[in-house]
Design brief:
This protein has about 400 residues and is α/β, with parallel strands linked by helices. The protein is built from 12 helices and 14 strands.
């Protein structure tokens, strides 16, 4: 390992292009890890991107911390590391017996100072669905863009969130009908940045026939959104004032969206979606208070005695149970990172796609898995609203 430490010491600097760790021995811990240098206020750091299943986690570390992390990963998790800077490429292979094979070759690739500066930026530019510099009518009207397409500094996080949301929709586009109007209901639409974005993406960019309804309790918000939709001539986008639990639709609903519906409002939105037989559900839960007041578990009391820890664990447990209950109702369900945790703690998205035809491996909950779900709820002494609604 001493030779490896010398390599890490040499490679971990501002000239590093990247490090990729692969060929995992423990997929539950990490399937792949990528590392790159970033320039932040505190100086030079190394950003780690860890892939686990469908989840992606980001963290920043000093050079010393990253050396220790790399050593740990190669000792008990990964069998291969690929390291590269402007002048050298190193491949490290770890055998089943822990023996190292290190190969190095010289590279002629040179970077300009401008390229180095761009590569060291904390948030490098990426290919968004909606591009900076290209004016989009609803973004201009909502104050995210200037008329010439420039993203306003105070709204850049919102711009990234909108694009991330559209990526989730792009991923499930083939699950929505192509031979008729796509019907979408957006519960708790609020100011409707994402509602307008969804309509624009599907109708303007993908040229799909779509009809979207946004629902919210706030009268003035709904009026403003309705006026904007008319001004933009978004003819099949309408807004209604109302409560999720009492909302009724007169036809087939293909997709249900619920972004930041507070506490049990998310459960009512999920219930509507399941009972309508919606093909796709996208939900970003918010303010999950219900289980925090219910959880009783003597075994976990040493952990739950800390109020903040209990509150956060209760929120995570709430969403995990929601995902499992949707699985039980015939949906393939994922919990994904919506946007980086540094921007908001409300960053988990539940994406559920209705299962079609034959049940895939690991699909609808078997009696054994369903029983395990019931045992988990019994163990924690919780009775989620969604369980009762379904």
């Amino acid at each position: 390992m001493e030779e490896l430490r010398e390599i890490f010491q040499r490679m971990l600097n501002q000239d590093l292009i990247g490090i990729t760790l692969s060929n995992t021995r423990d997929a539950e811990r990490a399937a792949k890890v990528k590392i790159r240098p970033v320039r932040m206020k505190g100086g030079l750091f190394f950003q780690e991107t860890l892939y686990r299943g469908v989840q992606v986690f980001h963290s920043n570390h000093t050079k010393e911390e990253m050396q220790e992390r790399l050593s740990g990963y190669l000792s008990d998790c990964f069998r291969q590391a690929q390291m590269r800077n402007a002048g050298e490429e190193i491949t490290v292979l770890v055998s089943k017996r822990g023996r190292l094979s290190i190969k190095s070759r010289q590279c002629r690739e040179k970077q300009t100072e401008e390229q180095k500066a761009a590569d060291l930026s904390h948030d490098r530019s990426r290919k968004y669905i909606l591009q900076e510099g290209e004016p989009v009518d609803f973004l201009v009207e909502l104050g995210v863009q200037s008329p010439d397409g420039r993203i306003l500094k105070a709204k850049y996080d919102k711009f990234r969130q909108i694009n991330r949301y559209l990526e989730f929709i792009r991923d499930i586009l083939d699950k929505l009908p192509a031979d008729r109007t796509i019907r979408i209901v957006d519960f708790g639409c609020g100011k409707s940045y994402l509602t307008f974005a969804m309509y624009y993406y599907l109708h303007q960019l993908e040229h799909r026939d779509v009809r979207v309804t946004g629902l919210d309790l706030k009268t003035e918000v709904i009026k403003n959104c309705g006026r904007l939709a008319k001004r933009l001539q978004y003819e099949k986008l309408d807004f209604r004032e109302g409560d999720i639990s009492s909302f009724q639709d007169d036809g087939k609903v293909d997709m249900v969206v619920s972004l930041h519906a507070c506490d049990r409002a998310t459960d009512y939105a999920l219930e509507k979606a399941v009972k309508w037989g919606a093909e796709v559900i996208l939900a970003v839960p918010c303010c999950q208070h219900e289980l925090n007041g219910q959880i009783r578990c003597d075994l976990l009391q040493p952990i739950f005695k800390y109020g903040l820890i209990k509150e956060r664990m209760a929120a995570l447990i709430t969403d995990a149970l929601r995902a499992d209950l949707l699985e039980k109702k015939g949906y393939d369900t994922q919990i994904l990172e919506f946007i980086d945790m540094e921007h908001t703690p409300k960053n988990l998205l539940i994406r559920a796609v209705k299962r079609r035809g034959m049940r895939p491996k690991g699909g609808i909950l078997s009696e054994e898995k369903s029983g395990a779900l019931d045992l988990a709820m019994e163990f924690l002494q919780v009775n989620p609203t969604l369980k009762e609604l379904l």
